[in-house]
Write a structure and sequence with these properties.
The structure holds 2 protein chains of 2 kinds. By secondary structure, chain A is α+β, with helices and mostly antiparallel strands. Chain A contains 4 helices and 19 strands. The longest helix of chain A has 29 residues, at 298-326. The relative contact order of chain A is 0.12. By secondary structure, chain B is mainly β. Helix content of chain B is 0%, strand content 58%. Chain B is built from no helices and 37 strands. In chain B, strands 4, 6, 7, 9, 14, 15, 16 and 18 form an 8-stranded antiparallel β-sheet that branches. In chain B, strands 19, 20, 21, 22, 23, 24, 25 and 26 form an 8-stranded antiparallel β-sheet that branches. The two termini of chain B are 37 Å apart. In chain B, 46% of the residues are buried. The model of chain B is unreliable at 1-16 (pLDDT under 50). Classes of the chains: A alpha+beta, B mainly beta. At the A-B interface, strand 1, strand 2, strand 3, strand 5 and strand 10 of A face strand 1, strand 2, strand 3, strand 23 and strand 24 of B.
């Protein structure tokens, strides 16, 4: 009896230990890093010195060690930042740049600054030069198959110009690749937890997406400061107009960025225009592009059509059946006595 | 089949790439007239009550200062000149001095000096025994350019104003009741220092001019910027167009005549938000600065952030720093300040909300435990939640460091691990050593956007077996592209 009691006690202890370890794992503080400014943008001239402080934040509850290093970068059409070894790209500013430190030890919920110096060579090529300062956590747990290294980056774009302020050309355009009217797929109605709501969306609530390509054909970067696409309608049923703000991207020279702007409260039926206006500073914008669109409620039309077809079919079938009896030539004898009928 | 799309106007409307006229901006600059290109109204840019003579330098002859009165030495056939140290970039403006001739005699002129280049080249708005004169000394030779009659009394202080606008020099005499004005046009000097002078052409007699405080220089300040603010000594400022600016044509210069001076110009009460991150930047150049030239952001609650501390002589350099405002901050004053002697120039100021991005991960790793081909695939849903907060459009990317390895030389491909956004129902995307976009989003501070991510690990019979755990590392990186 005593042995059984001991075994039971041990089992309880083992379970308790397992639970506490699981609990400890669940309460592991998240890793959280932040950087400001996450974009560094300036115009410089050959021979000029640029100095700045980058603020790095450890917002997590654990101490972290960060590697701080320079990389080159490019940004894809889909806005994915791709990093390359420092000074590997022709437009790199990494060779001119030095960091105040390459390693940071940060206490929980703390903040530090890292000094960045960019010493532009006198013979630096006119145009935009880029650089990424990356802060990557070194803290890795030894267990686990897949370990994570969170990182944040500050992306620098420096326009190198002549001493008299010339040399940088700002040239850009916005192109409407297409304007699409989308309805949610029927699959989403089946899989939605709110079937009725999803069905209504499927029938009545389209979205209109303007697919815009923003091109930079100059030799200096520009930013999408504000603007977006205005959806206006000349004829509409179930709504009026909408505005969708453009994302605040930086467009590097010789690059194209795809931007999708989706009007979620589009009317059921409409004919109108999508007008895209991208501001690259407070007051100036790229040439405006206007693209017409039409919204036709195909789902509703299909459903109504199918229902009508079913109704007509039902009526036809019913009439055919009912009409066959009506057209019967043999009189139906009444259950009631006919006048003159003898008893 | 019911995912109907209406693709209308599939034809692309293309606007040809246009050469754009205005410069690009990185973010909304909260500072008005950041490059000082726009002139504002007239303001006091230098003032001295002569508690001492430290703001001045005597370039010819000599002076005696006592009780706020400056008296020229007045030796025979000599010129006494004192100019405000480091004030050489003044072009247009009005210099006001109070002066009296101690002797109402011929061959004597005393008054205000403008556009002083050296002791042989300057304009003088002077008083003689019966005239107010516009006088030019060019290569050491004095010429009277214009005159106006008046009747002074010896030892009486009169106000003399020297106004220079382009090539026009106007000298005005006032005794409080009457005025006399002489105007001349001359383009010999376009800029120069300000000061006072007394010219005695009589070789054998002492003839003196006495100057009384205050000496005041007013000139056009940059629009939306203050005139000179004085913390110590008698500093001055110039909306400068002389030397090449960092950009454009204009910049702001502060100058000081002695080490103990401290002065500033500022743009006050710029609306700001508490608990927000701002970036302040400026181009700064220094010439023989004994102390420091700096830009300071002063929050409404008094908290200050100092940008740069430039001293000595430096070419235009660009400086920036970032700070987070106090919770109760409602405005920020941007102050450009020079402590000490020398000249400090400022251009291309910027104060803007700082682009910010943060990334939080729900854990440091995941463990699939023991895996085998028979039980594959192994799903973790979600394996990880990445939370991105940014005040700009942001992007989250994932990048693998390499294949799974057990530390003993055995590996299997990283691509065995796939990911997808939780709840998307999408197919798993194999991870790679290249950056893959996980998700993007619009500005979302302060809440951020949590993105749960599923993992699927699929091992095959071709993969090696090991008693050691296979590991790899993924880097998640958040940016504001």
């Amino acid at each position: 009896m005593r042995r059984i009691t001991t075994l039971l006690t041990m089992a309880v202890l083992v379970l308790a230990a397992g639970s506490s370890s699981a609990l400890a794992g669940a309460k592991a503080p998240p890793i959280a890093l932040g950087v400001a400014p996450s974009k560094l943008q300036t115009n410089l001239i050959g021979g000029q010195l640029y100095q700045t402080d980058l603020d790095i934040y450890n917002k997590g509850g654990s101490s972290v060690t960060l590697d701080v290093y320079l990389q080159d970068y490019t940004i894809s059409t889909a806005s994915v930042v791709e990093f390359h070894p420092a000074a590997s790209l022709a437009e790199s500013a990494a060779g001119w740049s030095t960091l105040g430190t390459s390693l940071l030890h940060m206490a929980p919920h703390s903040h530090q600054q890292v000094h960045l110096t960019v010493n532009v060579p006198r013979d630096a090529a006119i145009g935009t030069h880029t650089l990424a300062v990356i802060f990557r956590s070194r803290q890795l747990r030894s267990d686990g198959n897949v370990k994570y290294q969170p990182a944040v980056a500050s992306l620098m774009a420096a326009g190198v110009e002549n001493a008299d302020g010339t040399g940088l050309r700002l040239k850009g355009s916005a192109i409407t690749r297409s304007v699409e009217v989308n309805w949610i797929p029927l699959h989403d109605v089946w899989t939605s937890s709110d079937h009725v709501g999803a069905a209504i969306d499927w029938l009545l609530h389209p979205t209109v997406t303007a697919h815009i390509a923003i091109k930079n054909e100059g030799n200096t970067f520009f930013n999408v400061i504000k603007g977006g696409t205005d959806f206006t309608t000349s004829v509409a049923l179930g709504g009026g107009e909408g505005r969708v703000a453009a994302p605040t991207y930086t467009i590097l020279p010789s690059s194209v960025r795809s931007v999708d702007m989706t009007w979620k409260d589009a009317p059921l039926f409409a004919r109108g225009d999508a007008e895209t206006r991208i501001y690259y500073n407070d007051a100036a914008h790229l040439p405006v592009v206007v693209t017409p669109f039409e919204i036709i409620p195909w789902h509703l039309i299909t459903v109504v059509g199918v229902l009508l077809a079913l109704f007509v079919s039902w009526r036809l079938v019913r009439r055919r059946r009912h009409g066959g009896r009506v057209r019967s030539t043999s009189p139906v004898s009444s259950p009631w006595m006919a006048p003159g009928a003898g008893v | 089949m019911f995912d109907l799309r209406t693709r209308v106007a599939a034809c692309c409307l293309v606007a040809a790439g246009a050469l754009l006229p205005a410069s690009a901006a990185s973010a909304a600059n909260l500072i008005v007239n950041p490059g000082f290109e726009t002139a504002g109204s007239s303001a006091t840019v230098f003032s001295d009550t002569w508690p001492d003579f430290t703001a001045w330098q005597t370039t010819a002859g000599g002076f005696t200062l006592a009780g706020g009165l400056l008296t020229s030495t007045g030796a025979g056939s000599s010129t006494d000149i004192a100019v405000v140290r480091n004030s050489q970039d003044y072009q247009d403006g009005t210099l006001t001095v109070r002066a009296s001739l101690l002797n109402l005699v011929p061959q004597m002129t005393g008054g205000a000096v403008v556009r002083y280049r050296d002791a042989s080249n300057f304009y003088l708005c002077g008083l003689t025994k019966n005239q107010v004169v516009v006088q030019r000394r060019l290569a050491g030779t004095d010429s009277t350019l214009a005159t106006a009659a008046y009747g002074p009394v010896a030892l009486t202080l009169y106000t003399i104003t020297a106004t220079v606008t382009g090539s026009q020099i106007t000298c005005t005499f006032s005794d409080g009741a009457t005025t006399a004005t002489a105007t001349a046009t001359d383009a010999s000097f376009a800029s120069g220092m300000i000061g006072v002078a007394s010219i005695n052409s009589q070789p054998s007699q002492v003839r003196q001019t006495r100057f009384a405080q205050p000496v005041t220089m007013t000139a056009t300040a940059p629009q939306s910027w203050s005139g000179i603010g004085v913390l110590a000594g008698q500093p001055g400022m110039v909306r400068d167009l002389i030397a090449p600016a960092n950009s454009g044509a204009a910049y702001l210069q502060l100058y000081g005549g002695a080490a103990g001076f401290s002065g500033y110009s500022q743009q006050a009460t710029i609306a700001a938000v508490g608990s927000s991150t701002y970036t302040i930047s400026a181009a700064i150049r220094s010439e023989s600065v004994s102390g420091t030239a700096k830009a300071i952001a002063i929050e409404s609650g008094g908290t200050t952030t100092t940008l740069a501390s430039v001293s000595g002589t430096t070419a235009w350099g660009v400086y920036s720093t970032t700070f987070t405002t106090q919770p109760g901050t409602t405005w920020i004053t941007v102050r450009l300040r020079l402590d000490g002697s020398g000249r400090a120039s400022f251009d291309d100021l910027s104060l803007s909300l700082s682009p910010f991005v943060s990334l939080g991960l729900s854990g440091a790793s995941v463990d699939f435990g023991g895996v085998d081909p028979l039980s594959s695939p192994f799903d973790l849903s979600p394996a990880l939640t990445a939370t991105v907060a940014a005040n700009q459009a942001w992007s989250l990317a994932a990048q693998g460091s390499g294949d799974f390895a057990d530390g003993t030389g055995k590996t299997y491909p990283l691509a065995r691990l796939g990911w997808r956004l939780s709840g998307s129902g999408a197919a798993y995307t194999a991870l790679s050593a290249g950056a893959q976009s996980v998700t993007t989003g619009a500005a979302n501070t302060p809440a951020g956007t949590a993105t749960p991510i599923d993992f699927r690990l699929q091992v095959t019979y071709a993969d090696p077996v090991s008693s050691q755990p296979f590991q790899t590392t993924l880097t998640y990186i958040a940016t504001t592209p």
